[in-house]
Amino acid sequence: MRMRQLILAFALVLGTAVAALAADVTGTWTAEFDTQIGVQKYVFTFKVDGEKLTGEAAAERMGEKSTVTLTGGTVKGDQIAFTEPLNFQGQEVPITYTGTIAGDEITFTRKVGDFATEQLVAKRKKD
Fold it and tell me: What is the pTM of this model?
């Protein structure tokens, strides 16, 4: 019985420690990457509260600039995910991002509706 209590206590401490190690991506991140429609430049502004991610994406593509509010954002450990809503010629096209955080870089896979899947790296903007 004593061993079971010890194992449960250790698991609880370890679980708390892992949750505390969730990557903090709060701040500004930049990315520039080539796509089927040319080079795109992004500035992401993230805020994290627990595992909830909120923020904006300011994009420049094909000479046009736009800013949108991100939806469905989460950060769990070193994993990040969110959706950028895109209105393309009157059609709503979700751009879903999933990524892995490693220090001051996030390696993303982004899926643009059913049209394309792209890889990019966002870097933390240093003040």
Answer: 0.81
pLDDT, one tens digit per residue, over 77-115 is 999 999 999 988 899 999 999 999 999 999 999 999 998
Structural domains of the chain ordered from first start: 24-124 (2.40.128.120)
Tell me the Cα Rg of the chain.
18
Question: Which tokens go with 105?
Answer: 């870089």
Residue 1, token pair as written in the block:
């019985």
Residue 90 main-chain phi, psi, to 5 deg: 80, 0
The first and second tokens of residue 44, run together, are 């992401």
Q: Which three-class secondary structure state does DSSP give residue 115?
A: coil
Full DSSP string of 51-75: TEEEEEEEEEETTEEEEEE-EEEEE
Burial class from Cβ neighbours inside 10 Å (0-12, 13-18, 19+) for residue 115 reads exposed
Place of tokens 């595992």: 51
d(CA 104, CA 84): 21
